[in-house]
Write a structure and sequence with these properties.
CATH class of the largest domain: Alpha Beta
Distance between the termini: 34 Å
Bound molecules: fe (ii) ion
Structural class: alpha/beta
CATH topology of the largest domain: Nucleotidyltransferase, domain 5
CATH architecture of the largest domain: 2-Layer Sandwich
Helix content: 25-40%
Number of domains: 3
Strand order of the largest sheet: 18-28-27-19-21-26-22-25-24-23
Number of helices: 17
Strand content: 15-25%
Shape: globular
Amino acid sequence: MINICINAFHDASVTLMEDGKVIAHLLEERHKNMKHATDPLIALSKIRDYVDRIDLVSFTHLFPEHYSPQLYLTYLKHLSGLKVPTQCPQFMDVRGHLQHTCHHDLHAICAFRNSGFEDATVVVIDGAGSTHWYGKENQTIYEVFDGCVTTLEKTLVGRGHYQKPDHKILITGQGVFNPDEEELPEYISEIINVGAGFAYAGITEWLGWHGLDCGKTMGLSTYGKENSNIPCLLDPIDGGNINFMPISMGTRGYIQGTLLLDEFDHLKQDDQFRADLAYRIQKDYESYLIATCERALSKSRSKNLVVTGGCALNCVANYKLLKSLPKDITLYAEPVSDDSGVSMGGAMQISDMNIECKLENLYLGTQLKYDYELLKHETESNITVEEVAKLLTEGNIVAIAQGRSEIGPRALGNRSILFDPRVKNGKDIVNSVKNREWFRPFAGTVLLEHAKEWFDLDRLDESPYMMFAVDTLPEKIDLIPAIVHVDGTCRIQTVTSKQNKNYYDLISEFHKLTGVPILFNTSFNLAGDTMVEYMDDAMYTIRQSDIPYMYLPEIGKIIHSPKNLRKEEVDDYNSGFEAPKYLHQQPGFEYTERDGIIGKGTSTYKLNEVSSEHGFIEGYDESNKPIWNTYDMLRSDY
Ligand SMILES: [Fe+2]
């Protein structure tokens, strides 16, 4: 059977499975160059590169009442050229296909099946998942045991109104659940609050970034310290705090938590206060994660712990969790735990539980094609892996592009920018080339067989997907200053020849030359852009930046792009545009994205610009119905 699952909300993605194996996972943002993009129509258009028919289509969206699966089916049926069965060929009908109803279930299925465990305790934590009749989930604990999946606990965002199937509106008050006469499922936790994901995102927005860019806050946190003026932001047990107000918009449920501490507003440009605030939310989240996982393990029979949901991308907290766990617990952190993973969970939910569908690697994106053209001043030449390693030891930045792009948010050697980790100010050099913020750390890729000589992996055998920022051994810190963060940690990828031969060989050569079995690895993109997907994207990126070299190991070539190109020369380049990725960067083009998820284009509105008069329930009438202000106006965006 060939099935696809479409996640149409943020981090939009399409997962394609054939007979229980994921054969492609396509991220819309890589095609649009808009981080966290919605509506994966371009990704969907690429499915034909892999199959010529689909037997079953399934859908997932956080707000199913506001989107149309028919749109995607219409596209597939009439425009893609794929054979897609429907019950009614003249007028598209979803009845022949499936709609997944629980967001956290999908995170959990994706992570559990990728873990390879036979049984597991699965903890899902994100900003918010599906809106159920009893509320909006923000954390769910599952036990998978003897082939049965049991929900052990579900925590809800604290306020809002939801519609029961009979359209009767329910209201939950702050900290008090009032479900009317309806009986709650027994796994619903008494804890009702804004949740860890919204609290972390709320701080991130306060710092001036998009709520989904929590990695920036995590990077900044290392520069902060205890500040007695900042209260607890995330209770380790309750998972929320009265210092946040959930913003709600009509039937969308909660879409964000906003920090209420107005007295801090005058400190928004104070660098030390910003770092202290980031420090506080990071420390609070670490305590919260550890407490939650301890509780989960105490309720479950399995000693295999799986963490997923957007918060599981916090590689600093994952390592703290790992260190805190009893020695008989095995930990797996899902690499595709952002919302692009829910399409994978959806596709896997349909697949037979007896079929092993664990991913062998994350190279499931677009295959690179070498049909590029060079500009007048550019050169390409044959090169050996030894010569590339030598270029790196001479202080050159070398991008590497090969094979199929890696899925998930981390570059793993197929779309990476590489540098010498021994260079003292290497972090500043690459940060300025990529135009990133000064405080953001870089990752390293280490040959697996040498990993434990350099890093404290605790009980991990490997770290192939950069899900942990591990401690660097003290005697090694000064040897790789470009990739060790100020707290002595390094987010590492371990690599074997089987996982990525060309990349492994390059690091091995670098090791022979320097005695360091590690390369500095950052994603192949500039700040604000998504990772490159196609050769066009890669060429465009090196031409727009100070990256001089791009290594193409599959064809044994290196491209040298001199840095004195005329602007017109770069702008005029067009080899056919494999993807319309940079369309919105052309003059006069304005791209509007929905749901406040924005890339470089414009947006109908931004989440953090929604004022309280638009976002909050103003009060309740005599029949306890919420009184809204202008949410209808906002809903018209759909
Ligand atoms: Fe999620």
